[in-house]
Amino acid sequence: DAGITQSPRHKVTETGTPVTLRCHQTENHRYMYWYRQDPGHGLRLIHYSYGVKDTDKGEVSDGYSVSRSKTEDFLLTLESATSSQTSVYFCAISATSQDTQYFGPGTRLTVL
Amino acid sequence: AQTVTQSQPEMSVQEAETVTLSCTYDTSESDYYLFWYKQPPSRQMILVIRQEAYKQQNATENRFSVNFQKAAKSFSLKISDSQLGDAAMYFCAYRRNSGGSNYKLTFGKGTLLTVNP
Question: Which of A15, A30, A34, B48 could form a disulfide with A46 if both were Cys (CB 3.0 to 4.6 A apart)?
């Protein structure tokens, strides 16, 4: 299994509070991704990174920001959480843009 | 834009029997990859099998095989000798293999597979 961890694994927070989710990898892969999973939607890409300090938006990026200061860490921040951001968040990694993406264990976020 | 459709929200199979999960996709590209991922109750997303569009031979991984029909844009997953541990949500996914946005995975909405003892 690819060495990918996500923290926290579960979080409950209140509307309007900032939240940061962390993805950590030990594979030294260049590409990292954040997805959200909602019932009836499958997984949808939020943001991705193609190197340290290099990031770009996915299809559902509104309300989210990301940062990558080290190869191994990719942070997803909700500046002011809303109830619509209640979801399961997955991090994924790949060595190149064309390689298979491998997923972390997920973080369940509940915004009350 | 590419779309992936899984028309079976739920399927069930008896232990030791064979089941086929359907997936169709829409793309104007000729070079792409298709994937099946499995998500058990643990929520972990696990790669089951992948198929490169340029390869005519259908991919096989132990009890899992695909029927890839490029002209029909169909990519079904066959699970033989079903086991209780196969019970999970199965997602079909597409990714183009060249040009811009070739990192992006497009997922179907999933098929929930139940395995009955």
Answer: A34
Lowest mean pLDDT across B20-24, B47-51, B74-78, B101-105 = B101-105
Task: State how far the Cα of B33 lies from the Cα of B30, in Å rounded to an integer.
Answer: 10
Q: Is A97 on the interface with B (CB under 8 A)?
A: yes
| Single-letter code of the amino acid located at B43 | R
What is the CB-side half-sphere exposure of residue B110 using CA atoms within 13 A? 20
Of B45, B109, B110, nearest to A90 by CB-CB distance is B45
DSSP assignment, residue B63? T
Distance separating alpha carbons of residues A85 and A78, to the nearest angstrom? 8
Selection from B35, B72, B73, B33 nearest residue B54 by Cα: B33
Closest CA to B6 of B82, B117, B91: B91
Pairwise CA distance, residues A107 & A105, whole Å = 7
Q: Which two tokens stand for residue A2?
A: 């690819």
Task: Give the gap in angstroms from C-alpha A17 to the nearest C-alpha of chain B.
Answer: 26
Assign B98 a pLDDT band (cuts: 50, 70, 90). Answer: confident
Identify the pLDDT of residue B100. 64
